[in-house]
TrEMBL record:
Domain FAD-binding PCMH-type, chain residue ranges per copy: 1-221
Name of the molecule in the record: Xanthine dehydrogenase family protein subunit M
Pfam family, one: CO_deh_flav_C
Organism: Massilia antarctica
Keywords: FAD, Flavoprotein
SUPFAM superfamilies for this protein: CO dehydrogenase flavoprotein C-terminal domain-like, FAD-binding/transporter-associated domain-like
Alphabetized Gene3D superfamilies for the sequence: 3.30.465.10, CO dehydrogenase flavoprotein, C-terminal domain, Uridine Diphospho-n-acetylenolpyruvylglucosamine Reductase, domain 2
Record carries keyword Ribonucleoprotein: no
Transmembrane segments: none
PANTHER family referenced in this protein's UniProt entry, alphabetically: OXIDOREDUCTASE, XANTHINE DEHYDROGENASE SUBUNIT C-RELATED
InterPro entries linked: CO_DH_flav_C, CO_DH_flav_C_dom_sf, Diverse_Substr_Oxidored, FAD-bd_PCMH, FAD-bd_PCMH-like_sf, FAD-bd_PCMH_sub1, FAD-bd_PCMH_sub2, Mopterin_DH_FAD-bd
Length: 345
């Protein structure tokens, strides 16, 4: 690992000033960044530790939503009583990821910024446009089991690996960001980007910009009917081949009043298609409507040989997740400790 200067600022303005320097990177839980530094994939000149900043609270907003501080831990978020009651979809998605130890360390802001799990991105001996722009893409024509079927480009076919982000996309979250130039809010659907000709850029955050919080809008309408379905190679401790965050608002007449569906593991960002969600409106929550929704979500999907299976798998997963959501929110938090807080190791 290259030598690196470590800063632990106590004040927000100091953190922004230090991060504005060339080669600086923020560090929160370090569960992704330290691995990348060990492999030589990322070589920051300095680290700005944000764990002393007061960014770890989870609190209701005046609008009836919830603000998740950037350094709130994934475990604390998943087990927070207001998240469990109002946003069970988010709890389920977080708990479907990683391991208890990692969720205890991983921060909410860091989860959004975790890098792809493409094998070639981690192997500095081979070309990768995301790691070294213009060097080529080793995945195209190579091992593609994990790779994208939607929104890819000739420069990169990587996927975004987060589970939490799939639920945040479905829930319509907003990212709060801060820099020496000021504060701004970024709609979750605009936060991550498709690779296009610049796969080195995962998201629309500017250099030195700090995520301070993630805002969840009021979402009581979806609390009773949501599901996170994650399909992967092992039952635990594996990234999604395909995942689905599904949320329905079902009216008194039994038809769908509002719907949200996001796919994970299939693109460079959580994948939402408004027309696919609109196709469910006014319909009985049953197979015919779910299948029509899945067709629209997967429109234009293209495999790369080894990952062709993801297309039919994603279609079936959408239908299954919507069925689970319609039946009622699944409590897949059976491993939860009795009170909010750190998970047992
Ligand atoms: C073995 C293993 C298995 C995993 N499995 C899963 C899984 O199944 N599903 C899943 O979703 N995730 C999984 N993860 C990923 C894990 O969730 C992420 O590593 C974690 O969320 C990153 O958070 P962190 O706080 O540790 O980030 P760090 O490693 O500290 O930082 C990650 C990146 O974010 C930047 N950063 C951090 N905080 C901020 C901020 N507030 N503002 C601006 N920049 C910031 C850093 O500069 C760095 O570039 C796994 C990780 C490991 C190691
Ligand atoms: S898919 Fe993207 S991350 Fe993977 S080798 Fe190609 S350019 Fe790199």
């Amino acid at each position: 690992m290259n030598p690196v200067t470590f800063h632990a600022p106590q004040a927000h303005a100091e953190a922004l000033r230090l991060a504005a320097r060339d080669g600086a990177a923020y560090i929160a839980g370090g569960t992704n960044l330290i691995d990348l530094m060990k492999e030589g994939v990322m070589r920051p000149a300095s680290l700005v530790d944000i764990n002393s900043l007061p960014l770890d609270t989870i609190a209701p907003t005046e609008q009836g939503g919830l603000l998740l501080g950037a350094t709130a831990r994934n475990a604390d978020t998943a087990y927070h009583p207001l998240v469990r009651s109002g946003y069970p979809l988010l709890s389920a998605a977080i708990l479907a990821g990683a391991s208890p130890q990692i969720r205890n360390m991983a921060s909410d802001g860091g989860n959004l910024l975790q890098r792809t799990r493409c094998h070639y991105f981690y192997d500095i001996a081979v070309p990768c446009n995301k790691r070294v722009p213009g060097s080529g893409c080793s995945a195209i024509g190579g091992l593609t089991r994990q790779h994208a079927i939607l929104g890819a480009s000739e420069h990169c076919i990587a996927t975004h690996p987060s589970d939490m982000c799939v639920a945040l996309a479905a829930l319509g979250a907003v990212v709060h960001a801060s820099s020496e130039q000021g504060e701004r809010r970024i709609d979750f659907t605009d936060f991550h980007r498709l690779p296009g000709a610049n796969p080195e850029r995962d998201n629309t955050l500017l250099p030195g910009e700090l995520i301070t919080a993630i805002e969840l809008p009021p979402a009581g309408q979806f609390a009773a009917h949501s599901a996170y379905l994650k399909l992967r190679d092992r039952a635990s401790y594996a990234f999604a081949l395909v995942s689905v965050a599904a949320a329905l608002d079902i009216g008194p007449d039994g038809t769908v009043r509002a719907a949200r569906v996001a796919l994970g593991g299939v693109a460079h960002k959580p994948w939402r298609v408004p027309a696919a969600e609109d196709a469910l409106l006014g319909k009985q929550p049953a197979s015919a409507a779910f299948e029509a929704c899945a067709e629209l979500l997967l429109a234009g999907a293209r495999g790369h040989g080894q990952n062709d299976f993801k297309i039919p798998m994603a279609r079936r997963a959408v239908v299954r997740a919507l069925g689970q959501a319609a039946a009622g929110t699944i409590d897949n938090m059976h491993a939860a400790p009795a009170s909010a807080g750190k998970e047992p190791l």
